[in-house]
Amino acid sequence: MNKKTILILLLATAAWSEPRAEMCTRVVYTGPEETTLTGRTMDWKEDPQSKLWVFPRGMRRDGAAGANSLEWTSKYGSVVTSAYDICTTDGMNEKGLAANLLWLAESEYPANDGRKPALSVSAWTQYVLDNFATVDEAVAAFSGGEFDVVSDMMPDEPNISSTRWRTVADQKNRVYYYESVLYPFLIWVDFDELDFTAGAPVGMIDPASGKRYAGNTSAEFSPAEPFVFQAAK
C-alpha cells in the first residue's frame, strides 16, 4: 500500500475529529484489489498512557470477569494499542482482522450474575483478535448469546475529549500505523517482520518513553510482561 494513501487517511480522520473532538472516530476505506484500510482516532479526556504490543499465538487468557470468566487460548497473533495498561483499545491480528474499542457513555451492559460466562469490555478487543480471522466469524460468535460482555467502568465525560492518537490498519498488506498527536513521527509495524509463533516473547513499544521512534518500528519491540485486563466486578 502506498504510504501516501495512508497519510491521506490519517489526515482525513484528523480533519473529522478537529478542532475539538467530541468522540472517537472510525473510518473504513475499501479500494481496488481487495484493499481495506481501517482508521480511527483515540479521543479521550487525558493521556491514556498508550503502548504498542505484539502478542504471539498460544497465550492463555480469561475474561477478567470473576469466577465465571470466559477462558481461551489465542489462535492468532496480533499487534495492539493499550490504554492505561488495563485494556486493548485497538489492533489488528495476523489474519488482517481489525478491532477498535470505542466508548459510548450511554451503553448499557448486562449484569454479571453468573448465569453465563462473562467477558470484561477491557478484554473484548483482544478476544476478537485472538479468536477470529474474519468479521463473519466474530459476528456469528457474538450473535449466539453464549456469553455476556460486562463492564463497571464509567469514565467521566468521555465524549468531551481531545484526540490523543490515530491508527490505520492496512488489512490487505498487514501493516499497522500509529501516530501520536504529541510526537511528530508516524510509525508502523510490518507483520511480515514479526514472530507470532506460540512461545515467542511478548513485545512492547512505549511511544512516551523518550526514545525516538520513526518509520518502520517492527524491530523495536522490547520483551515485556503482558498487561492485566481491568476486571469487571
Word description of this protein:
There is one protein chain. With 233 residues, the protein is an alpha+beta fold. 15% of the residues lie in helices and 31% in strands. The protein has 3 helices and 16 strands. The strands form 4 sheets. It has a 6-stranded mixed β-sheet with strand order 1-2-11-12-13-15, covered by helices on one side. A hairpin with a 5-residue loop joins strand 1 (26-30) and strand 2 (36-44). The longest helix is centred in the N-terminal third of the chain and has 14 residues, at 3-16. The radius of gyration is 17 Å and the shape is globular.
Index terms:
16 strands, six-stranded mixed beta sheet, 3 helices
Average predicted confidence as pLDDT: 88
> Distance between the terminal alpha carbons, to the nearest Å?
43 Å
Strand content: 25-35%
Strand line-up across the major sheet: 1-2-11-12-13-15
Low-confidence stretches: none
Radius of gyration of CA atoms, rounded to a whole number: 17 Å
Overall shape: it is globular
What level of helicity do the residues show? 10-25%
**What is the makeup of the main sheet?**
6 strands, mixed
Work out the helix count.
Answer: 3
Structure summarized in a few sentences:
The chain is 15% helix and 31% strand.
Please describe the topology of this protein:
Blueprint: H1 3-16, E1 26-30, E2 36-44, E3 52-55, E4 60-62, E5 71-73, E6 78-83, E7 87-93, E8 98-100, E9 118-120, H2 121-131, H3 135-143, E10 148-150, E11 162-170, E12 175-180, E13 186-190, E14 203-205, E15 215-216, E16 222-223
Parallel strand pairs: 9-10, 13-15
Antiparallel strand pairs: 1-2, 2-11, 3-6, 3-14, 4-5, 6-7, 7-8, 11-12, 12-13, 14-16
